[in-house]
Amino acid sequence: MVDDTTTSSLSDDVFLADEPRVQEICAQLESISEALGDVSFDLLREAVEKGASKRPAADKKLAQARRAVDKAARLLSS
User: Fold this and answer.
1) How far apart are alpha carbons 66 and 78 in whole angstroms?
2) In a domain, 11, yes or no
3) Is residue 6 part of a domain?
4) Whole-model pTM above 0.85?
5) Number of H helices and number of E strands within the chain?
6) Which SS3 state, helix, strand or coil, does residue 56 take?
7) Does residue 49 sit within a domain?
8) Is 63 domain-assigned?
9) Rounded CA gap, 48 and 39, in Å?
10) Domain span at 35
11) Mind listing the pLDDT tens digit for each residue in 51-73?
């Protein structure tokens, strides 16, 4: 005996990227990723202007956050 709710649920997951609300969230995540990149760039620019010879620790966290946001967007859009 096949459970129809499981089959229906699996087929719905395949088309998750077609859901308008999910598409909107993906667009927001992409915007957040770009904003994190901008902040990171500004942070690095300021560090260079101040003569820093090492990457600021905060930039590592920003890069990690950006990768996580990018991963979430890819998961939802595939």
Assistant:
1) 18
2) no
3) no
4) no
5) 3, 0
6) coil
7) yes
8) yes
9) 14
10) 17-77
11) 999 999 999 999 999 999 999 99
